Amino acid sequence: GLMMANLMSVGSNQANQNAFISGITDEGAMSVRFGAGANYANKHNAPFRVLDNGKVYGSDMEITGGKIARFNISGNTLSGQGIADPNDYLEIKSSGSILSYKKSLSSGRESYALINNDDSILNGNKNNILRLWGRDVNNYTPYNALSIRADGQYATALNIESGDIRVGGEVGYTGSVFLGNRLVYIKNGIIIRV
């Protein structure tokens, strides 16, 4: 049968009520309709609560599957495709791996951004921590695979703390050479002092 009430609370006894369903509209769309982990008097502090407008609050939720908007949850992976273009794709794994892929249907241009990704094919069969990869098979328009900008008096656009610089698989030259009558110091193929 039908049971109606403004408020239904549950718990182990009268003094220990820890979940509720409420039909009381005291804050309009922000009125708490469902709560767990607190009684109705402490509804705004309930670890899990659902408002009249559908908003859900959870302080310790474990979601192992389903969807959040257009993102799919599967095991340790959160992934989603673009709305306008299904070729747009983003994948985040709990291991710290991120893959972003975009392909323009009009130009055919593709771009990948990989962080800590162990896919050997996308990662160029190398152990790259970060890989940016762009392909423009139709030579549609000029583009940059990497663009860095740092404005301000003390800004540095790129700081290489250590490691080699490779161009086409070869490590850049380190040493000094005379150019004209000037001694030029080069490190990993980059002029560092004249």
Structure description:
The strands form four sheets. This protein has a seven-stranded antiparallel β-sheet with strand order 6-7-8-9-10-11-12, with no helix packed on it. It is elongated and about 95 Å long. It is mainly β and 194 residues long. The N and C termini lie far apart (90 Å). The chain contains no helices and 17 strands. The mean pLDDT is 85. It folds into three domains: 7-58, no CATH class; 65-135, no CATH class; 159-194, no CATH class.
* Helix and strand run: EEEEEEEEEEEEEEEEE
Largest sheet: 7 strands, antiparallel
* Alpha-carbon distance between the two ends: 90 Å
- Principal-axis shape: elongated
What's the count of strands? 17
Helix content: under 10%
Mean pLDDT: 85
Residue windows where pLDDT falls under 50 for at least 5 positions: none
The side-by-side strand order for the widest beta sheet comes to 6-7-8-9-10-11-12
Radius of gyration (Å): 28 Å
Relative strand content: 35-45%
Helices and strands: which structural class? mainly beta
Q: Given the structure, what is the number of helices?
A: 0
Number of individual domains: 3
Provide key terms for this protein.
7-stranded antiparallel β-sheet; mainly beta; 194 residues; 5-stranded antiparallel β-sheet; 3 domains
Summarize the structure.
With 194 residues, this protein is mostly beta strands. The chain is 0% helix and 42% strand.
Provide the fold topology.
Blueprint: E1 7-13, E2 16-22, E3 32-36, E4 48-51, E5 56-58, E6 65-68, E7 71-74, E8 77-81, E9 89-93, E10 98-103, E11 110-115, E12 130-135, E13 166-167, E14 170-171, E15 175-179, E16 182-187, E17 190-193
Antiparallel strand pairs: 1-2, 2-3, 3-4, 4-5, 6-7, 7-8, 8-9, 9-10, 10-11, 11-12, 13-14, 15-16, 16-17
